[in-house]
Prior knowledge:
The protein starts with a helix and ends with a helix. The protein has 2 domains: 55 residues; 52 residues, Homeodomain-like (Arc Repressor Mutant, subunit A), CATH 1.10.10. The longest helix has 17 residues. The protein is mainly α. The chain contains 8 helices and no strands. The chain is 67% helix and 0% strand.
Amino acid sequence: MHHGPSHALAPTPGALTPARLRQAKELMLRSSLSIIEIASVCNLTRSHFSRAFKVATGLSPQAWRLLARMEKAKRLLATEAPITHVSLECGFCDQAHFTRAFSRLVGQPPKAWRQALGHS
């Protein structure tokens, strides 16, 4: 049985709609809103939002946001931007918090990661 292209684009049952998922990701990347506030913007409870986000992405909202921040940090660390600037730009309250999170997820501190790229 052929279902055509519209079937391929149908959202996974229990997941956020593609439009809500885009909206939620955009808010997580560009604002300091809490997950509860983002859920509210999506007209969902926090628990429903978290479940639907995980169904759609395979990650909890918190895990997705942290990984997205780390990817942004890696891009910024590949430039000459000061590490303090990178930490604030990626939504961390201070450089120490950023360094701990980066080290835990990437396996080395930001300065060592940058040096391995050939930057000082």
